[in-house]
């Protein structure tokens, strides 16, 4: 699920009801993905239930589980979903609830040999001694995510996905899970659907094993994520094809430009028909079912949230930059100074030849470094805004007034509020700038992951 998944996951937990697996007469292998509407009272009650270890799943009653209302700000229902499905590992099958994650490539579940992590005791654990098809591997491994780390060792066993039995699949038994995210999470583990290039330990992703074992008719899998909060079915994952009931028209395909994540060239992002500036030369994007939101560069996300009237993150630094340096930024841009060098020339960033970074001299003291980072980012955002206004022939007075209006609207009395489906997440070059198209995007567009042709297809969800 990449380094961003667990960071964003702390803002968005939505928990599923009982999960049903079934096959159909059309030869497609479907996995129903269920969800439950966010409810603050249910969250609090479920947290207590988790602490008392009374939760019963897969055949028992289901409850929402997550952080208390003090830890997270409830969002509109179209944003508060996360999708889960059930798989089986071993013979007879031991059931696990997993996130089907196109942003990672490994399958992992807690091990019965996990003794020192609370998360393992609060979730289903794989017991190799109870499986007739278990094969020992023993190779150790570690995976680091944005807010924690898992460690364990590889094993091999049969994995049941829908009605498909993938034989001798290499997966990870975790023996250490070092993040509160794993403790409060409804999911037992992760089933990665990314490319093998980002798989730890060379373990093949499940779709590659399906292809090699000739279990599916076509080399594709597809997601439909239901955004109807009142529907019982949360969505559907289909291996080997697509379900025509869940999309309109035909799919538009784009080639995968970099294997690992499902990455493609996105091009520019327009607001009201105008370029936001930052991606004028093109940006890359990945489609990630393991991320709840649409995440992208701060400079663009701030503009999007402003345009849709959403509240955003604290913007005191932006206000300071515009008040102190606004006129200077305008003068430099009029003098045709490269936008990438403006913040360097006014002393808020250091230019290293490829991109702006915070002042390394201040990095000796972490607190100072964080402050420098914030002002550098704020300056870069202000430059993009002002540059776009100049392109539209706005006067200096109008530009500064508009920028200050934008900043005040975002500040919200010093409180950090997340209510938009767009979240700022900056990935530096050479990997970035990069957009992460998570469940908010995939809910609107039925998505086909074609690993046979190395392309991604989008069609409007039905």
UniProtKB/TrEMBL annotation:
Superkingdom to which the source organism belongs: Eukaryota
Domain (Saposin B-type): residue spans on this chain: 313-353
Keyword Signal: yes
GO MF entries: aspartic-type endopeptidase activity
Disulfide bridge positions per record: 114-120
Residues of the signal peptide: 1-23
Family matches, as SUPFAM superfamilies: Acid proteases, Saposin
BP terms from Gene Ontology: proteolysis
Stretches assigned to the Peptidase A1 domain: 83-459
Residue numbers annotated as active site: 101, 288
Keyword terms of this UniProt record: Aspartyl protease, Disulfide bond, Glycoprotein, Hydrolase, Protease, Signal, Zymogen
Family: Belongs to the peptidase A1 family.
Protein name: Aspartic proteinase
Naturally occurring in which organism (per UniProt): Urochloa decumbens
């Amino acid at each position: 699920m990449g380094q961003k998944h667990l960071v964003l996951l702390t803002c968005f937990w939505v928990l599923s009801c009982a999960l049903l697996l079934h096959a159909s007469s059309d030869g497609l292998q479907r996995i129903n993905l269920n969800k439950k509407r966010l409810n603050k009272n249910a969250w609090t009650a479920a947290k207590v239930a988790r602490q008392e270890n009374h939760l019963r799943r897969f055949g028992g009653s289901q409850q929402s589980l997550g952080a208390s209302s003090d830890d997270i700000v409830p969002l509109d229902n179209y944003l508060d979903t996360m999708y889960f499905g059930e798989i089986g590992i071993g013979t007879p099958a031991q059931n696990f609830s997993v996130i089907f994650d196109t942003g990672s490539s490994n399958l992992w579940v807690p091990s019965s040999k996990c003794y020192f992590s609370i998360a393992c005791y609060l979730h289903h654990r794989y017991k190799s001694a109870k499986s007739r098809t278990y094969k020992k591997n023993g190779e150790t491994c570690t995976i680091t995510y944005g807010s924690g780390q898992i460690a364990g060792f590889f094993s091999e066993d049969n994995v049941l996905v829908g009605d498909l039995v993938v034989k001798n699949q290499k997966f990870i038994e975790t023996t250490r899970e070092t993040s509160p995210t794993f403790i409060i999470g409804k999911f037992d583990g992760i089933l990665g659907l990314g490319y093998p290039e980002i798989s730890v330990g060379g373990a093949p992703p499940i779709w590659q094993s399906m292809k090699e074992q000739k279990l599916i008719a076509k080399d594709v899998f597809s997601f439909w994520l239901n955004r109807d909060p009142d529907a019982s079915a949360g969505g559907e994952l289909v291996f080997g094809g697509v379900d025509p009931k869940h999309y309109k028209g035909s799919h538009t395909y784009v080639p995968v430009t970099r294997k690992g994540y499902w990455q493609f060239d996105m091009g520019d992002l327009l607001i009201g028909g105008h370029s936001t500036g930052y991606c004028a030369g093109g940006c890359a994007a990945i489609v990630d079912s393991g991320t709840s939101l649409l995440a992208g560069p701060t400079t663009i996300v701030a503009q999007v949230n402003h345009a849709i009237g959403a509240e955003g993150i604290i913007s005191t630094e932006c206000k300071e930059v515009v008040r102190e340096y606004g006129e200077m930024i305008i003068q430099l841009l009029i003098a045709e100074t490269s936008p990438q060098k403006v913040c360097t020339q006014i002393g808020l960033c250091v230019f290293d030849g490829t991109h702006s970074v915070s002042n390394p001299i201040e990095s000796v003291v972490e607190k100072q470094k964080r402050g420098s980072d914030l002002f550098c980012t704020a300056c870069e955002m202000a430059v993009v805004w002002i540059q776009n206004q100049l392109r539209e022939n706005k006067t200096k007075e109008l530009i500064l007034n508009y920028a200050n209006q934008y900043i005040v609207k975002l500040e919200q009395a010093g409180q950090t509020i997340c209510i938009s489906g767009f979240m700022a997440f900056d990935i530096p070059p050479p990997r970035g700038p990069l957009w992460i198209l998570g469940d908010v995007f995939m809910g609107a567009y039925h998505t086909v992951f074609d690993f046979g042709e190395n392309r991604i297809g989008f069609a409007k969800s039905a």
